[in-house]
Design a protein that fits this description.
The complex is a heterodimer of chains A (249) and B (290).
Chain A (H helix, E strand, L loop, with lengths): L5 E10 L2 E11 L4 E5 L6 H8 L7 E6 L2 E2 L7 H5 L2 E4 L11 H11 L5 H14 L15 H13 L5 E5 L7 H16 L3 E5 L3 H7 L2 E6 L2 E6 L1 H6 L4 H12 L4
Parallel strand pairs in A: 3-8, 3-9, 6-7, 7-8
Antiparallel strand pairs in A: 1-2, 1-4, 4-5, 9-10
Chain B lengths: L25 H27 L4 H8 L2 H41 L6 H15 L3 H15 L8 H27 L2 H9 L4 H31 L11 H12 L3 H34 L3
Helix pairs in contact in B: 3-4, 3-6, 3-8, 3-9, 3-10, 4-6, 5-6, 6-8, 7-8, 8-10, 9-10
Classes of the chains: A alpha/beta (249), B mainly alpha (290).
Chain lengths: 249, 290
């Protein structure tokens, strides 16, 4: 029996002919922050969607608190209550205000009374400095604000595992920091997180463990100091060199 | 997330008959409007002159535009048209609801829903492949002839049912296009928040989908408003049927023109509204960054 918060064992996934995950093994301890790095198409995003059961895996096991959530007959909705996920873009529902976006799941899924759900939402928004956006529609917010609201919405159901799928990749550079700071605040609160990111500086800063993915495999993993300073795999070195050449590290 | 340049709103002018051009200055707009007006008047005068001075005009006028015939036939056509409007309203309301249900069923995912999905696809394919008029004849004459106990036998009932079935299949496809136009992340976001498929569709996908297909729905509305007249083949005395009866009696076709005028009275404003809405919607989408 595993003691890890989350554990992936031999997870494989193919879309038609394309193998996107190959025998992935990963253990995430309680309160640990794991960053997934690697080029686009390396499987980072699919891995997160598999963990959230949005994409069914072909083989292997995904253990959440020791229980296999990828097994047949598992209630996906129940599993999802325990984790939140934020995507790259189009997270918020454009036809609902910020408040309705945040309270939808508590009200419809968890049966929380509207008044209570809204109170909680307002508190969360205030905590992240977004009190004045309560009644705005998403298209009136900046990209950074939209992503922060998306994080808050995921937090509203009180998950103890958060997944982030390149949440800053679609943002203007000056808006990246405000979103990353929200994630940093979550780390300080002890949230367990798996973060797919292209922000290497952030990954080095916030991660307890960094995984380098290449063609659906975790080619190399370890503490950020080791991965970024002395990667052992040639592919990792190549990848990081390109990032450095682009001035992004 | 790129900010798109908002469309210049100033001096856009009325866009009643085509895409709006934005003249740079106000005088230019006024001048363009004057030219458009003058050339339209000229065109209409010339066209009218050409028609009215042709040799065939007296005969055409006698057959189609005879005032005394018009006065005689109009009350019957009007009362028939009132039936058309009532049929249209009842059918449209049922169609909008029924087709949404069919589209939602067709959009369900997962192997468990396969039979439902298949049923929806078969229904849509079959019905769309049959001419509306054939369906009206089939249900309107066929089912009452079976004389099944407890089953309505009214021509009006079955004529409307045929229209509803036929248009629901088309409209379901319109809704489905709308559902598929909503970004996949929206569905994933909703599911990741713990919403069931049905909840995700109802609260998140469908509201956006409907907004995306309102222009197409309005087009269907215009189309149905005219097609309700097809039930005349069952002998239902709606506007066209009344005109038909009058023409058979008198060999004068002014009744058809009267009916046509009544249909135009409704369909032209709705078509203009659909255009106006589509343009407004497009401009709004262009001026808002996502």
């Amino acid at each position: 029996m595993s003691t890890a918060k989350l554990e992936l064992q031999n997870v494989s996934k193919a879309f038609d002919d394309k193998q996107v995950l190959r025998d992935v093994d990963l253990a995430v301890d309680h309160h640990e922050v794991v960053c997934l790095i690697g080029s686009s198409g390396s499987g980072k995003s699919t891995m997160l969607k598999c963990i959230n059961l949005l994409v069914p895996i072909d083989s292997g096991a995904i253990l959440l608190d020791g229980a296999d959530i990828a097994a047949p007959g598992v209630n996906a909705n129940q599993v999802r209550e325990e984790m939140g996920i934020v995507f790259q873009a189009f997270n918020l529902f454009p036809h609902m205000t910020v408040l309705d976006n945040i309270t939808l799941s508590p009200r419809k899924v968890h049966g929380v009374k509207r008044r209570v759900a809204e109170e909680t939402a307002r508190e969360l928004l205030a905590g992240f400095g977004l009190s004045d956006k309560v009644d705005e529609y998403p298209d009136r917010l900046s990209g950074g604000e939209q992503q922060r609201v998306a994080v808050i919405r995921a937090l509203a159901t009180e998950p103890d595992l958060m997944l982030f799928d390149e949440v800053t990749s679609a943002l203007d550079p000056e808006l990246v920091a405000e979103v990353l700071n929200v994630i940093r605040a979550l780390k300080d609160d002890g949230m367990t997180m798996v973060i797919a990111t292209h922000e290497m500086g952030f990954a080095r800063d916030v991660a307890d463990q960094v995984c380098f993915l290449d063609e659906g495999r975790i080619l190399e993993h370890g503490p950020p100091g080791q991965i970024f300073s002395s990667p052992s795999e040639a592919r990792t070195q190549q990848f990081l060199q390109r990032i450095i050449d682009a001035g992004r590290l | 997330m790129e900010e798109q340049t908002p469309i210049e709103e100033v001096g856009g002018g009325p866009s009643l008959f085509g895409p709006p051009r934005a003249p740079r200055r106000r005088e230019e707009g006024a001048r363009a409007a004057l030219i458009a007006f003058a050339s339209s008047v000229l065109f209409i005068v010339v066209a009218l002159w050409a028609i009215l001075s042709s040799d065939a005009w007296p005969a055409v006028q006698r057959q189609f535009f005879n005032w005394s015939n018009f006065v005689e036939v109009f009350p019957d056509v009007l009362s028939g048209f009132w039936l058309d409007i009532r049929m249209f309203v009842v059918a449209e309301i049922i169609i909008l609801i029924l087709s949404l249900v069919i589209a939602m069923i067709r959009s369900l995912r997962g192997p468990a829903f396969f039979p439902l999905r298949a049923l929806a696809v078969i229904f849509i394919d079959l019905i769309r492949g049959i001419p509306v008029i054939l369906l009206i004849l089939l249900l309107g004459f066929g089912i009452p002839a079976l004389q099944l106990p407890g089953v309505p036998t009214g021509a009006l009932f079955w004529g409307l049912t045929a229209l509803i079935i036929s248009y629901s299949a088309y409209t379901a496809e319109v809704y489905r296009a709308g559902i598929e136009s909503v970004h996949e992340s929206q569905r994933m976001s909703a599911r990741s928040l713990g919403l069931t498929q049905g909840q995700a569709l109802w609260h998140v996908i469908v509201p956006q989908a409907i907004r995306n297909v309102i222009p197409a729905l309005l087009n269907g509305l215009v189309s149905l408003q005219k097609d309700v007249a097809l039930v005349l083949v069952l002998g239902i005395r709606e506007a066209v049927r009344e005109a038909d009866i009058y023409a058979a009696k008198t060999f004068n076709y002014t009744g058809y023109i009267a009916a046509a005028l009544l249909f135009l009275l409704i369909s032209v404003p709705v078509a203009r509204f659909a255009d106006w809405y589509t343009n407004r919607d497009r401009r709004r989408k262009q001026s808002v960054s996502t």
